[in-house]
């Protein structure tokens, strides 16, 4: 596995990185889970930037990503991406989830953010099966890193023990 991929069990809002990825909803107005935590910890600057984005382009579609300042977070930017809601796996969910990672990392390269922290996108209220989501995340990020040497470190930040164990198991295997 690429040594630039690291696993952390903890709170993504505490990560001192260049960019924190937010598992946002399409309104970008905050919500529950990691989205609400990022908005609360980051303060009003994030919401102000999100409102400007919505005024300019409308809602953020599933699989897309946008970037804002990080407000009070110990990061420079927040990359907001909208993961897919799990509907049994037959509605293009895997491709949409992979797009979340690709579009977030593309913004990271564009904004010169060499260190990025990702949450477990779509595995909370959106119901994506955790192991399948982790496998997509790891494979997509690994593939992106092969073609983008600019990114120095990607952290998968797992808040709960279950996701941490899943990622640890998958990352410890030689091949996925």
How would you describe this structure to a colleague?
- There is one protein chain.
- The mean pLDDT is 95.
- The longest helix has 18 residues.
- The protein has a six-stranded mixed beta sheet with strand order 1-6-5-2-4-3, with helices on both faces.
- The protein has a single domain, classed as 3-Layer(aba) Sandwich (Leucine Aminopeptidase, subunit E, domain 1), CATH 3.40.220.10.
- Helices cover 41% and strands 18% of the residues.
- It is of the alpha/beta class.
- Helix 3 packs parallel to helix 4 and helix 4 packs across helix 5.
- It starts with a strand and ends with a helix.
- It is built from five helices and six strands.
Write the layout of secondary structure elements.
Blueprint: E1 5-9, E2 19-24, H1 33-42, H2 44-57, E3 65-69, E4 77-82, H3 93-110, E5 115-118, H4 130-147, E6 153-158, H5 161-172
Parallel strand pairs: 1-6, 2-4, 2-5, 5-6
Antiparallel strand pairs: 3-4
Counting helices, strands and paired strands, the structural category is alpha/beta
Output the radius of gyration: 15 Å
Write down the overall geometry: globular
Number of helical stretches of at least 4 residues: 5
Order of helices and strands: EEHHEEHEHEH
Task: Work out the count of structural domains.
Answer: 1
CATH architecture: 3-Layer(aba) Sandwich
Mean pLDDT equals: 95
CATH superfamily: Leucine Aminopeptidase, subunit E, domain 1
End-to-end C-alpha gap: 9 Å
